[in-house]
Amino acid sequence: MNKHKKIKELLLPYLEGKLGEGERKEVEEHLKVCEECKAEIKKYIELEEGLKMMKLKEPDERVWENYWTSVYNRLERKIGWILFSLGAIIVLFFGVYQFIDELLKDPKTPLILKIGIFSLSLGAVVLFVSILREQLFSGKRERYKEVEK
What is the pTM of this model? Predict the structure, then answer.
């Protein structure tokens, strides 16, 4: 690695005061003769000053009140949906089990129909659980709608 490239990599640590005595002196000597590195260090300083002047906008009190109210409401709804889903799944599984049990005991029902109805019932249960889980846990959320640019 040539010396100029090495010094360019040391410019930011130099400004942050993270260099040892030897490297610091090496950078300072290079800055006396290299206009490109002087310009780059000047840009770093201007950027740092600009960043210090930036301030985040504090949200007003109404935003915080709405935030905490919505947290409670979302939590309450999620618990309700989980309990509702659990109950629906139990009832659905029990109904499918009873239906299949009666169907399998009936000797008049052809085997292919039994297999088809079993597959259809099991597929419906899997799809129901999948859709329900997606709605509960990965629904669209707009977390930053209150943030202003």
Answer: 0.38
